[in-house]
Design goal:
heterodimer; A: 123 residues; Rossmann fold; five-stranded parallel sheet; 5 helices; 42% helix; 22% strand; globular; B: 159 residues; alpha+beta; Chemotaxis protein chec; seven-stranded antiparallel sheet; 3 helices
């Protein structure tokens, strides 16, 4: 199973990459929404995208809207990963088509728990 | 260096809340412990400091500043990259400090009046604090036996 991590911070991508690789996932990385869309076009095996909200260029919110507007990606699950903790932000992300939402800072266990909620990891 | 002076609160944000947030970030994400201290009396590392800053703009205007000695910044980056401090490049160290500063700002944003826009982080060399505005709250921490300072500045509202 392949996971795409989208974040402009290499440090944050590294943290998530280690968590996901340890859990047995193949990991692909992109630094903004546009690059992530190109990854989705190139790699049809991506099952899940973890996407940061705030990025230069195409941000996470615009990326989610773009993915949900493309029927080819309707089975791809999307999880917003962001430091912005307001409930309005969560609602906006979910309304745009995100399947899950996790706040920074997170623990390894919190990330894995979200993957269980999405049915990507067994309970 | 790194003084803690009494300050006046203008928004609903205590030093305790700032500490809880910092403790949560360093513990959850980096598995590093921070302790709150009143002052730092030892010498600062000779390698210098890094300052990370994010701006908040909206009904409340200000900034969050994270000031960190370079050796601690390097250790912090190493925790994020799962590598040794010696293997970290300057770019990776600045990226890590920027991300932590952004996380502080993003979480504080939820405690501020809306609407509120959070800027991308900027990281610069040295002990660099905003020239405009006044300190609303600040905390001094010890992490890996080095000092770490977080300052919340408020700027005047634009008319």
């Amino acid at each position: 199973m392949a996971v795409l991590i989208v974040d402009d911070s290499r440090a944050m991508r590294s943290l998530l990459r280690h968590i996901l690789k340890d859990a047995g996932f193949a990991v692909i990385e992109a630094s903004d929404g546009q690059e992530a869309l190109e990854c989705l076009q190139r790699c049809r095996e991506i099952d899940l995208v973890l996407v940061d909200w705030n990025m230069p260029g195409m941000d996470g919110y615009a990326f989610i809207r773009a993915v949900r507007a493309a029927p080819a990606y309707h089975e791809v699950r999307l999880m917003m990963v962001t430091a912005e903790a307001e409930i309005e932000q969560v609602s906006r992300a979910l309304a745009a088509g995100a399947d899950e939402y996790i706040m920074k800072p997170f623990t390894r266990d919190a990330v894995l728990e979200k993957l269980k909620l999405l049915g990507i990891l067994p309970h | 260096m790194l003084p803690i002076a009494p300050v006046q609160n203008a928004i609903t944000l205590s030093a305790d809340a700032l500490f809880e947030l910092a403790e949560s970030i360093w513990h959850s994400l980096l598995e590093m412990e921070v302790q709150r201290i009143d002052h730092w009396s030892a010498d600062l590392p000779e390698d210098g400091m890094l300052t990370g800053c994010v701006y908040l703009d909206g009904d409340w205007r200000g900034s969050v500043t994270l000031i960190c000695p370079k050796p601690l910044a390097r250790q912090t980056a190493a925790a994020m990259f799962k590598a040794t401090p010696a293997a970290m490049t300057e770019t990776e160290v600045q990226d890590a400090i920027g991300e932590l500063t952004h996380m502080l700002g993003g979480n504080l944003k939820s405690l501020l009046p809306t609407p509120c826009h959070l800027s991308p982080p900027a990281v610069v060399e040295g002990y660099t604090i905003p020239k405009k505005g006044r300190i609303v709250e600040q905390i001094l921490l010890r992490c890996e036996n080095q000092p770490l300072q977080i300052i919340l500045f408020e700027r005047e509202k634009l008319l």
